[in-house]
């Protein structure tokens, strides 16, 4: 009287699991696209930036994040001494160096 009858699932509803997967397919595709369009290129740029910072040597010409151009005079673990003009040197953090210029760029300016 209080308990209703339980019936077996029909054959047409056997694809319920596949139906649930197809409803999540756009969400999964969105995450895959976001990985290839945003996350992977950012990781690649970070790896290139780290390799550039590790390869800094005396005499390299660089541009800082603030737009200062200079020649590397001294490199330590966390800081770089840049010669901005003859006799003028500044100390900047290694992370602030954004671009490594080709040799002779400063003389051309």
Please describe what this structure looks like.
The protein has two helices and five strands; from the N terminus they run H-E-E-E-E-E-H. The longest helix is centred in the N-terminal third of the chain and has 39 residues, at 16-54. A five-stranded antiparallel sheet has the order 4-3-2-1-5, with helices on one face. The chain has two domains: 18-55; 57-107, SH3 type barrels (Roll), CATH 2.30.30. The N and C termini lie far apart (94 Å). Helices cover 39% and strands 27% of the residues. The chain is an alpha+beta fold and 109 residues long.
Largest sheet: 5 strands, antiparallel
Strand content: 25-35%
Mean pLDDT: 88
- The number of distinct structural domains comes to 2
Task: Map the helices and strands.
Layout: H1 16-54, E1 61-64, E2 69-75, E3 79-85, E4 88-93, E5 97-101, H2 105-108
Keywords: Cell membrane, Membrane, Protein transport, Translocation, Transmembrane, Transmembrane helix, Transport
Transmembrane segments: 20-39
Subcellular location: Cell membrane
Short description:
With 109 residues, this protein is an alpha+beta fold. It has helices at 16-54, 105-108, and strands at 61-64, 69-75, 79-85, 88-93, 97-101.
């Amino acid at each position: 009287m209080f308990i209703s009858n339980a019936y077996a699932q029909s054959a047409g509803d056997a694809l319920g699991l596949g139906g649930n997967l197809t409803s999540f397919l756009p969400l999964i595709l969105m995450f895959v696209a976001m990985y290839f369009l945003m996350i992977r290129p950012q990781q690649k740029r970070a790896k290139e930036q780290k390799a550039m910072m590790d390869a800094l040597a005396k005499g390299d010409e660089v541009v800082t994040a603030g737009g200062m151009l200079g020649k590397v005079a001294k490199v330590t673990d966390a800081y770089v001494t840049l010669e901005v003009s003859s006799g003028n040197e500044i100390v900047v953090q290694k992370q602030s160096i954004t671009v490594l210029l080709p040799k002779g760029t400063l003389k051309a300016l």
